[in-house]
Specification:
The protein is mainly alpha-helical. The protein is built from 2 helices and 2 strands; from the N terminus they run H-E-H-E. A two-stranded parallel ribbon has the order 1-2.
Length: 102
């Protein structure tokens, strides 16, 4: 996707993909793969994960990274991916940018 360095690629439909969980509340990466494959087979322009669905603050940093790596593995470079990465707690803000968290 050679034009991903510009904002021009942010046109069209970018559905929010839910992050499924197992019964024990661990990540269900197989379920996430099924969701992604469903969306990838449709005529969407990109994918949104860990954001507007509201689950971001409930996952650890390690879980968030696992989700992003899994999404990247499945989507590859076929469609743009928007990832929610907002710090929810003040202790997650880098010290030099702490004021930007308010």
């Amino acid at each position: 996707m050679s034009n991903m360095h510009t904002l021009g690629f942010l046109k069209g439909i970018f559905p929010v993909v839910p992050t499924p969980l197992q019964a024990d509340e661990s990540l269900d990466l197989a379920g996430l793969g099924h969701c992604l494959n469903f969306y990838m087979a449709s005529d969407i322009q990109g994918i949104t994960v860990l954001g507007s669905g509201g689950e971001l603050p409930y996952f650890s940093d390690a879980e968030q990274l696992r989700v992003v790596k899994h999404v990247k593995h499945i989507v590859q470079d076929k469609k743009p991916i928007i990832v929610g990465v907002i710090p929810i707690r003040i202790n997650k803000c880098p010290p030099q940018n702490a004021s930007s968290c308010f």
